[in-house]
């Protein structure tokens, strides 16, 4: 079994534990992420879990799903409206059960799969490893808005290193996606894991580095937080420029939230 598939389930299970006692009405509460409700978050996660899952062995099905998404976008249909339609408007506790049962059943299908196998996706083809790691990252990042809404400080595990690695690997993508030249001096990362371990990535530097909690680095590269709302120590022109616009996910360039916009609600 791919460790990343196990880590994906761990993150999903944590979110399920957070949500399992909520009422149908609670799922309509709005988060600080673009006004999405908990229903919106779960519909989005389930739909793209399904997409990633069918891409494993049904190329025709994933190409049709992606084609339908493009057609909807070209017709001016909002992605969330399209997702809601594709899921027949399922919401609340019924949606929670659907999402939970699906991710639980999809994880065993990653047993014995070649992690380098190429899969069709909305952008360039992805490896199996990249695909399931992206599902973990997206679950972790979208769940942040739900934890914030419910006033809960998430207790992360060291499996969030997957998010850190994606964030680091998309350093160049952040700039290319914005039509900018990629700086040659990739910042040194010295991040403290939830367990207290220290993760170091890239060439050491005393003048171009980012140091602090791995969780906060993950929050910045997934645009769950503005860099100004973290305690990360950012030193150097390139490190500062990166953290101001970091984006580890696909799609057009997005502007990170302004300072103070996304936070734990009390």
Task: Please tell me about this protein's structure.
This protein has 266 residues and is of the alpha+beta class. The chain folds into 2 domains: 3-155, dinb family like domain (Four Helix Bundle (Hemerythrin (Met), subunit A), Up-down Bundle), CATH 1.20.120; 161-245, Nonspecific Lipid-transfer Protein, Chain A (2-Layer Sandwich). It has a 4-stranded mixed beta sheet. The protein has a two-stranded antiparallel sheet with strand order 1-2. The protein has 10 helices and 6 strands. The termini are far apart. The protein has helices at residues 3-19, 38-54, 59-74, 79-86, 92-106, 128-149, 161-169, 171-176, 214-221, 237-245; strands spanning 118-119, 126-127, 188-192, 198-201, 209-213, 233-235.
Which features characterize this protein?
single chain; about 270 residues; alpha+beta; Four Helix Bundle (Hemerythrin (Met), subunit A); 2 domains; 10 helices
Quick structural overview:
With 266 residues, the chain is of the alpha+beta class.
């Amino acid at each position: 079994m791919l460790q990343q598939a196990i880590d994906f389930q761990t993150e999903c299970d944590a979110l399920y534990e957070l949500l399992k006692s909520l009422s149908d009405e609670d799922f309509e509460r709005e988060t600080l992420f673009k006004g999405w409700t908990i229903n919106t978050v779960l519909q989005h996660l389930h739909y793209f879990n399904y997409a990633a899952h069918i891409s494993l062995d049904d190329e025709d099905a994933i190409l049709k799903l992606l084609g339908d998404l493009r057609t909807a976008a070209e017709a001016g249909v909002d992605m969330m409206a399209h997702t809601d339609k594709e899921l027949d408007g399922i919401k609340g506790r019924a949606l929670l059960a659907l999402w939970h049962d699906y991710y639980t059943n999809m994880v065993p299908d990653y047993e014995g799969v070649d992690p380098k196998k190429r899969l069709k996706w909305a952008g360039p083809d992805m490896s199996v490893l990249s695909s399931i790691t992206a599902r973990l990252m997206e679950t972790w990042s979208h769940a942040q808005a739900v934890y914030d809404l419910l006033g809960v400080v998430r207790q992360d595990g060291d499996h969030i290193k997957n998010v850190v690695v994606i964030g680091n690997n998309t350093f160049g993508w952040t700039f290319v996606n914005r039509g900018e030249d990629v700086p040659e001096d990739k910042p040194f990362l010295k991040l403290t894991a939830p367990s207290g371990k220290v993760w170091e990535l890239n060439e050491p530097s005393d003048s171009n580095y980012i140091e602090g909690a791995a969780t906060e680095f993950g929050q910045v590269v997934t645009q769950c937080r503005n860099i100004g709302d973290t305690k990360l120590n950012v030193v150097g022109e390139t490190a500062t420029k990166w953290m101001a616009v970091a984006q580890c996910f696909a799609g057009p360039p997005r502007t990170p939230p302004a300072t103070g916009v996304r936070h734990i609600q009390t």
